[in-house]
Fold this protein.
Amino acid sequence: MAIKRRPGLVLAVFTLMGLAFPVSFGAIVQGYNRPPARKDLDIPADDPGSASPQQVHISVVGEDKMRVTWITDSPSPATVVYGTSTGVYESSATGDTSSYTYLMYTSGDIHDVVIGPLKPNTTYYYRCGSSDSDPEFSFKTPPAAFPITFAIVGDLGQTEWTSSTLEHIDKANHDMFLLPGDLSYADLIQNKWDSFGRLVQPLASKRPWMVTQGNHEIEKIPIVHSHAFTAYNARWHMPYEESGSDSNLYYSFNVAGVHVIMLGSYTDFDPSSAQYQWLQADLGKVDRGRTPWIVVLIHAPWYNSNKAHQGESESVDMKEAMEDLLYQARVDVVYAGHVHAYERFTRVYKAQANNCGPVHITIGDGGNREGLASEYLNPQPKISVFREASFGHGQLVVVNATHARWTWHRNEDSETIASDSIWLTNLSSDPACKK
Ligand SMILES: *[C@@H]1O[C@H](CO)[C@@H](O)[C@H](O)[C@H]1NC(C)=O
Ligand SMILES: *[C@@H]1O[C@H](CO)[C@@H](O)[C@H](O)[C@H]1NC(C)=O
Ligand SMILES: *[C@@H]1O[C@H](CO)[C@@H](O)[C@H](O)[C@H]1NC(C)=O
Ligand SMILES: [Fe+2]
């Protein structure tokens, strides 16, 4: 939205507010040493001011529909035409258009259209808007049954490191992308949400991107912008209505045989909260016969032996409030971001190794401009199996109802190197964990 931004002014407000209210900016002010980070890329718009679609991304809605989201700088219909052959669009759907304001910034038109029913494991070709000259995109729907491959990484940002992480994910043959929070690192500069949208479009327009939010999505400024998550909620509408949630900040969905739960580390989580009540009800509805696997994503890790982000309420208090729910439900894996490094724990419950607890994995190593969190607490806790401060991403291949393979791929310059890999077996196949 080059024509609408006022970067100088916004930057000045940001700086002032940052000095006055450092707490609002979470990770930005943490005092640990990071190796030299890379700056944000300059990602210009192709055709600023036009009605041509930009920042196209997709997300699943139920088991056979897809939400297509895109932005235009000038008015354009919220219509998607689509079909299973290139250039032949036998179906069409219409949705909604919205926009938001943030200080002096006004977003472009954000179009949100749900298409389907769609066949599983099938390539669809689609066009956003009504103009014949608009580009064609394509995506592949997730499979209806195992195997399914997830690419997973948080704390992406928009640097050259982010680009190499995204290239590696693109080369991996994944069905869906899961993001445990901290997307753009716009940090109040709203046109950076636009450049982030442009950076991720090549991937996010062809595989569903299912995200939850981190501290960098809060973007609340006392007095002048008192609502949290304005840009995040406007731009990354996730299927919360379909999972009985009243908030875009927490939701769940089934894909192949996996029940994925996205939680919000920066909204209420105590037992009287709407999120807690929703989670309890959601876990109660899981049918392990249909979805033998339960995978949970949060932003702030509940287990962490990095020096970064120790003792924060969003980690300590959320774990205290919700760990029992996940343990009793026999959740298989919990992924978190926030700490810019990789760490894998054994199966844990209440800080002890426990064969019936979830494996906890921190995968906040997407490549944002803050750099790596490279200092660890020593000695390494027994429950921490593998830890390393490098950028990279993870892949979870759920092979069948009992076996899944998790691999962490480290970025070594432009290469992706498989550096940590384990087999996970489903918990209820372990008689000792039967309830
Ligand atoms: C999905 O389609 C690919 C290629 O068409 C096929 O090889 C694969 O077995 C399918 N997967 C599932 C789970 O049906
Ligand atoms: C785990 O595997 C067993 C054996 O295949 C299966 O019966 C069960 O439904 C699977 N999932 C869970 C959580 O029980
Ligand atoms: C599930 O996958 C694992 C790993 O490939 C394999 O050893 C096992 O036999 C499979 N189970 C079934 C029921 O096919
Ligand atoms: Fe974070």
In short: Residues 399-400, 402-403 surround 2-acetamido-2-deoxy-beta-D-glucopyranose (ligand 3) (CB under 6 Å). The longest strand covers residues 415-425. The chain has two domains: 54-140, 148-433.
